[in-house]
Fold:
Amino acid sequence: MRKTKLTKQEQLIEDELLGGNYLDVGDSVFNDIAESLAARKKDAVINIRVNNKDLEAIKQTAKKLGVKYQSLISELIHRTAKNVQL
Structure:
């Protein structure tokens, strides 16, 4: 059987899991997390033009947060769409 090569982050997670460092959150919390992830499923593509300075600022923010800038933009759109009341 072939062993899967894990990234450093994946190996850390596996070590923590096997070491008992994660707690069972229960069905209610688990379902809340699952619903949240499902709500963020990306199933549409858009193309937009933005100001270069705005894009660079978003890229810098994403870098500080340790996420991809496209993911940050997607999250900002999600939060805005969720909170907009016309």
